[in-house]
């Protein structure tokens, strides 16, 4: 006996509609999920990384590119230098390479720390450097320039010279040869690039 299928309802169209509706709803969900995904997986991490980079830059260290040859041969033009922020200038030592701001020149400079507060500095005609009566060994100085000079570093001040004495505008030539401690910005630590010159500064 044949079964009567007259009462069977054809749900094929309804199923198709539901499928399409599911696809559209899925698209909307995916679109919403996509925005949240990008916010969570990309925008937020980038924002956090940017904030951390700013904090690190302001607090710990930063990079500078050297524009001149005043610190040759220790530092060359174009070298990129890692500089650590100085929070306690009392820990600085003679011979440190320091980044500081010159109010006189209205520039940030990089030079070698030669004179501490209270030091008596004398530069002879032949370029020899004496600190508190003791002749200094300066293996990093190649190009001498004998500008006879005498300094007595005041309290709260430093005295800086470039390694390239024949081509460095420094304390010997400034109207105000001393730099206040609060103008010290950082201590140069490493040559980062070029890679062939990578290494710790001395």
Structure report:
The chain is of the alpha+beta class. The protein folds into 2 domains: 13-59; 62-200, Umud Fragment, subunit A (Ribbon). The chain contains 1 helix and 12 strands. The strands form 2 sheets. Strands 1, 2, 3, 4, 9, 10, 11 and 12 form an 8-stranded antiparallel β-sheet that branches. The longest helix is centred in the N-terminal third of the chain and has 48 residues, at 12-59. The model is unreliable at 1-27 (pLDDT under 50).
Structural class: alpha+beta
Overall mean pLDDT stands at 84
| Helix fraction bin | 10-25%
Overall 3D form: elongated
The CATH class of the largest domain is identified as Mainly Beta
CATH homologous superfamily label of the largest domain: Umud Fragment, subunit A
List keywords for this structure.
single chain; Umud Fragment, subunit A; elongated; 2 domains; alpha+beta; eight-stranded antiparallel beta sheet; 202 residues
